[in-house]
């Protein structure tokens, strides 16, 4: 990891109460299966993180570049933190690249844990890290050693809800989705993973490749808060080394507030839950989800909870010239 070459003003200097903007803002770049983030250490809650600042930080040509910003902040400094998170010291304040707030980020929360580890706020040897999010508390554990893409972390993602129920499964979904490049309108299934998703199953990989995700798919009816759209192709089942049957999916995603990204952790969970629901009781509980940026593993439990496993990597320290961003 590259050390900053210029003196870095801590985010602590960037107080809402301060009359002087900092010269620089210390940031870290990280990613989980190439879903990439700008991470900010604002543990004292002094940073005035406006939507405009988020959008400028995430700009890939004039900023640092990322699919979103993750602010690490003490939960007591987050006015809209859900009550359930009150007992968790650290909160992941997640923002999409357009500056909008999202409830949860499955890739981001692993990268958040790696960031907390690096800051000395979490030692994986002591047990899982409980992270406050706007979707509630999520737990992150370091579970697998480096197998080529860095160590893997497993997130307890909480409950996954298919609000549409069995009727929608029978008809293929509770929404209609039009995707550029695909000639036919497809059914989509709404899945709540703390944030909203609409999952569309495609029969063949050619359809996945033909889909145009430079603009958001048209979802009807569109949920009031918008939705993330996952296009998935089931690839069948395989037997893992321990003898268990594991399903495999290929997925592309258009994220609310961002556009097409190379991975989405909550989206992978939504996709696995939808495909399993369509597949019925015989469908596997564990799914490998191939995304353009790598592979994630989703485990669906009988009680409706899910676990998400994958890598989390920190790649750079950045001293952000805030005045230059504004320019
Ligand atoms: N990429 C994230 C999801 C980020 C939030 C999403 N765009 C939303 O608005 O809900 C993930 O890995 O889950």
Automatic annotation (TrEMBL):
Pathway the protein takes part in: Amino-acid biosynthesis; L-lysine biosynthesis via DAP pathway; DL-2,6-diaminopimelate from LL-2,6-diaminopimelate: step 1/1
Documented EC number(s): 5.1.1.7
Catalysed reactions, as listed in the record: (2S,6S)-2,6-diaminopimelate = meso-2,6-diaminopimelate
InterPro entries: DAP_epimerase_AS, DAP_epimerase_DapF
Family: Belongs to the diaminopimelate epimerase family.
Subunit structure of this chain's protein: Homodimer.
Protein name: Diaminopimelate epimerase
């Amino acid at each position: 990891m590259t050390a900053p070459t210029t003196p870095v003003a801590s985010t602590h200097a960037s107080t809402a109460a301060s009359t002087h903007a900092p010269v620089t803002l210390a940031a870290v770049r990280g990613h989980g299966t190439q879903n990439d983030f700008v991470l900010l250490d604002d543990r004292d809650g002094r940073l005035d993180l406006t939507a405009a600042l988020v959008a400028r930080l995430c700009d890939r040509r004039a900023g640092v570049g990322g699919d979103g910003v993750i602010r690490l902040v003490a939960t007591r400094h987050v006015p809209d933190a859900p009550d359930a998170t009150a007992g968790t010291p650290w909160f992941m304040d997640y923002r999409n690249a357009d500056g909008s707030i999202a409830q949860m980020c499955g890739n981001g929360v692993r990268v958040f844990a790696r960031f907390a580890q690096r800051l000395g706020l979490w030692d994986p040897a002591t047990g899982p890290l409980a992270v406050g999010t706007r979707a509630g508390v999520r737990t992150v554990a370091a579970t697998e050693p480096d197998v080529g893409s860095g160590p893997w972390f497993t997130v307890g993602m909480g409950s996954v809800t298919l609000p549409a129920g069995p009727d929608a499964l029978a008809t293929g979904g509770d929404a209609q989705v039009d995707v550029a490049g695909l000639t036919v309108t497809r059914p989509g299934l709404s899945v709540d993973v703390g944030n909203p998703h609409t999952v569309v199953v495609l029969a063949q990989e050619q359809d996945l490749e033909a889909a145009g995700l430079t603009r958001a798919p048209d979802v009807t009816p569109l949920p009031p808060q918008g939705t993330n759209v996952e296009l998935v192709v089931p690839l069948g089942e395989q037997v893992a080394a321990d003898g268990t049957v594991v399903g495999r999916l290929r997925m592309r995603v258009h994220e609310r507030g961002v556009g097409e990204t190379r991975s989405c952790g909550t989206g992978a969970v939504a996709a696995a839950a939808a495909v399993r629901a369509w597949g019925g009781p015989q469908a596997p509980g564990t799914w490998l989800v191939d995304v353009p940026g790598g592979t994630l593993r989703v485990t669906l439990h009988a009680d409706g909870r899910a676990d998400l496993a994958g890598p989390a990597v920190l790649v750079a320290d950045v001293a952000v010239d805030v005045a230059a961003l504004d320019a």
